[in-house]
Every structure is written in structure tokens, then in C-alpha cells.
Here is the input.
Amino acid sequence: MNQQLIEKIVGEVLGQLTKVNSEPKQQPVLPANTIPIAVSARHVHLSQEHVEILFGKGYELTKKSDLSQPNQFAANETVVIAGPRGSIERVRVLGPARSLTQAEVSWTDAMKLGIKAPLRESGNIAGSGAFTLIGTKASLYLEEGLIIAQAHIHMQPQDATNLGVQDGDYVTVEAAGIRPIAYRNVKIRVSERYRLEMHIDTDEANAGLITQGATGYVVRPGEVSQKVVEGHSTPESIVNKQYSFTKKLLSNDDVRDIEASEIIVEKGTIITALARDTARDLGKSISVRK
Ligand SMILES: [Zn+2]
Here is the structure.
């Protein structure tokens, strides 16, 4: 390794150490358009009539745990959802009982069940998938009610004002994790009863390697995401481009300068720790040429 390379590496290591020491345990300041993301696993909402058919006359759902939205809870009760091709056991019932029975599943689930389910907003079940529910006392065949839930954001009127959106609007939400992703046609739902939170299903979460506790941010039409969250997003101009890096050392500066989301280095190329950090912050990947 030549002297210049060594100096460059030492410089970056020192820079890293200084950075660590000078900015300890500081919580990142989240921009105003940050949206907490919650992943909704498959679940069922039941009418009181159907609760009593499935679990017995006079039966009422019992609370297992509170959900993030006020007054909503996960019940101790579970059901089996069955379709012509298969069934899924232990599907959580959410309470309290509603006026309409509805099952929200992922596309993957719907395929396993063999049921054609439309992408719908919760509550809009006319003409949706037919399915069978099995409880502890009986089973129930329903002509409609199985849907794939449309991604949406619950928020209070003040959140809507802050974000410049209205109830019923559709927005794009980007999440810049290790596999950056944009969710389009995300419906805004405004109510005093809500708490700011985006709900996506497990297929959507898996596509972006999203886990509970992740955040996204609303991108308004015409806005470039990079301006919205400095250093934690991938501008559209660099998405899906590859760059072949041929030098012996990939530094922090190189990662910043390369305008591609995928940096391919030669075997044996030295990648500094800071370069890796920067790549992660910028949503760029570094891989070795095979
Ligand atoms: Zn929701």
C-alpha cells in the first residue's frame, strides 16, 4: 500500500473518531414530514352478530393489548380464515366489534387462500373476496369482506395542516432504509380520534425491509426527496444506476461523489468504515464484482 493510501485511511479513521466523540448520543432531529410506520399483520374485524356466531351467544371480545390508534385493541380471540385453496390459522381479531365484518390480508395470504381480494380502503367491502371464518363454536361463510388494505396514514387535523394535506388525499411516502422504497397512492385519513401513523401490510413492509418502528416521509408532488431529508434519502436521479469503481481505495468522498445507487468495486478494493457509513446514510449499496 502506498503512503498516500495509508494517509487517506488514517485521515478517515481519525475523522470518524472525532465525529463519534463530538456528536455523542444525539437524537437525530426528525423533519416535520416524518411519518411513523406500523406494519399491520393480517387481521379480522367482526360485527357483534358474527362474534356471537363464532364464539357463542352473548360472547364479547376480550382485550389482549391496546393498539396504537385510540380505543382499538388486539383481542385474545383468533379465528381461522379459510378459502378454496388453503387456510390460515390464528388470525388475530381486532376490537371493538364493528358494524361490518372484514378480513384484511396480504396479497401473499390471498394467494394461499385461493381468494381474489381487491385492494381497498378499510370499510369499503362491497364485492370484495368471499371467505370462511372458523371460530370456537361455529364457522361462517361470508360472500364478501376479504380485502387487501390500501396503505394509509392516520392523522389528526393539526398533522394534516402541518403536512399541507387533506382527508382523502393520496401522497407518496418514501422510506430510506437499507432497501429504499416509495409507497404511492397512500391515502390520508384525518380524524381527531387518530394518532399520526402510516399503516402498511406485511407484503409492503417486506418489499422495503421495513420493521416496526421505521419511519417514512411524505413527498409532495414535484419535490425531490433529497431536499426533504438531508443524508437519509436517495434522490430519484441516482436510483437504479450502477457505477464501476476501479481504484484501490473507496473513500467517504468517493461514495459522496458517485452519482449511482449501486457502487461495484473490484475484488481487493479497500472500503473505509466511513465510506460504508456514508453509503448507508445515502442509501447506496457497495458490492464486490464477481
Ligand atoms: Zn389503519
The radius of gyration is 24 Å.
